[in-house]
Amino acid sequence: MEGIVHRMVEVNGINMHVAEKGDGPVVLFLHGFPDLWYSWRHQILSLSSRGYRAVAPDLRGYGDTDAPSSISSYMCFHLVGDIVALIDSLGVDQVFLVAHDWGAILGWYLCLFRPERVRVYVCLSVPFRPFLGRNPKVRTVDAFHALYGDDYYICRFQVFISFHLLLLVGREYGTGINPNTPENLPSWLTEEDLAYYVSKFGKTGFTGGLNYYRNLNLDWELTSPWNGVGISDKIPVRFITGDLDLVYTSAGMKEYIHGGGFKKDVPCLEEVFVQKGVAHFNNQEAAEDTSNLIYDFISKF
Length: 301
Hints:
Shape: globular
Largest sheet: 8 strands, mixed
Number of strands: 8
CATH architecture: 3-Layer(aba) Sandwich
Radius of gyration: 18 Å
CATH topology: Rossmann fold
Number of domains: 1
CATH superfamily: Alpha/Beta hydrolase fold, catalytic domain
Strand order of the largest sheet: 1-2-4-3-5-6-7-8
Number of helices: 14
Distance between the termini: 28 Å
């Protein structure tokens, strides 16, 4: 992608790969599972052309960033520590934060633990509640077992098994991708995009990304001091999701997002946008619309 600069940064005891372009206020993009900095390729080009410094790392365990072997190296404090150290390395006090999926969860943690580092938060797909609306009596994975059964993907991710990227994406998120028939790729994913993902996950596998899920119960224990704590009323938030996103359509989620619960937990939640005909990967499926929604919000601050 023309003009995007790639470099390695030492953060929090690991080497992190960062892709960036542009000059101006920093917009920090955090990707989800199973993804890479590359998922923000459209937004990097769009925001950098509008006067921002767009920065997107491969998170710990992904792509060209180090992938420690220990499962406990992926607990939430390590992951947020990486982000704080990355912000420090950029030479700024605050960033415009944009995040999706697991990146969105880390974004909420950053807002919770270090709110002074976040100027504005644009969250895609995962609202504050699912992982961080902490039940003090039931561990996170245990709650998913009780709600959805042993075959629920988060429960299955606790088991040490391997997944091919495209088969996993097709099964869990309904993209219908078959690695043997690239002509069936969805319109938002080209053969070039597919080749990039295959090259990176072919090198790293999925263990690092799966370890995020394998620390959910440990994260539940470690975050007990924040039980019942909401997001700072000093962080303006915009939430963007697709009406076909399985997070959005899961039991009770629409009621929480639109019924006042989300606004109670996130008092500076200013707007919720539901993109029609869009599923989970909205930063890629509806790239231009998502980029415009991000820019429209952050340009106010």
